[in-house]
């Protein structure tokens, strides 16, 4: 489910953090996209937790009217399938007119892939 974050029109820096809670191995990446333009990679996780520590994603005025596309791939193949629903992902945005906002992954953001892998894609519109 798409969420919306109000950046404002000033020169404030917007920060993003992604916190993945899973027993599996995870990888996250964040892309910025403007309507009709290419996606630009702006951050990714540095370890197998899939989490991204608060990273500066740009100035509010430059990010306005764009989207963040945050993708997380989680490998749960080594675990009992009855425990696969113990997954939480939180997306933290701060620095814009919306202030500090926390969004969770929604059911419609989640897709089961083959071999015990899960893909979570969270779009966030920046206004």
Task: Describe this entry's structure for a reader.
It is a single chain. The protein has 127 residues and is mainly β. It has one domain. The chain is built from one helix and ten strands. Strands 1, 3, 4, 6, 9 and 10 form a six-stranded mixed beta sheet that branches. Strand 7 and strand 8 form a beta hairpin. The longest helix has 4 residues. It is elongated, with a radius of gyration of 15 Å. The two termini are 16 Å apart. The mean pLDDT is 94.
What are the key terms here?
4-stranded antiparallel β-sheet, elongated, 3% helix, 127 residues, 10 strands, mainly beta
**How would you describe the shape?**
elongated
Overall mean pLDDT stands at 94
Instruction: Determine the strand fraction and express it as a percent band.
Output: over 45%
Helices, by number, come to 1
Helix content: under 10%
What is the terminal separation in angstroms?
A: 16 Å
* Oligomeric state of this protein: single chain
Biggest sheet overview: 6 strands, mixed
* Structural class by secondary-structure content: mainly beta
Radius of gyration: 15 Å
Q: How many strand segments?
A: 10
Integer count of domains: 1
Q: Unreliable stretches, pLDDT < 50, 5 or more residues?
A: none
Written as H for each helix and E for each strand, in order along the chain, the element string is: EEEEEHEEEEE
């Amino acid at each position: 489910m798409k969420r919306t974050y109000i950046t404002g029109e000033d020169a404030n820096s917007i920060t993003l953090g992604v916190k993945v809670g899973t027993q599996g191995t995870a990888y996250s990446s964040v892309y910025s996209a403007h309507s009709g333009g290419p996606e630009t990679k702006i951050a990714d996780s540095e370890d197998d937790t899939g989490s991204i520590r608060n990273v500066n994603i740009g100035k509010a005025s430059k990010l306005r009217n764009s989207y963040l596309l945050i993708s997380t791939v989680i490998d749960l193949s080594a675990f009992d399938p009855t425990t696969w629903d113990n997954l939480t992902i939180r997306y933290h945005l701060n620095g814009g007119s919306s202030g500090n906002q926390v969004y969770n992954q929604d059911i419609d953001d989640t897709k089961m892939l083959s071999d015990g892998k899960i893909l979570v894609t969270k779009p966030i519109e920046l206004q």
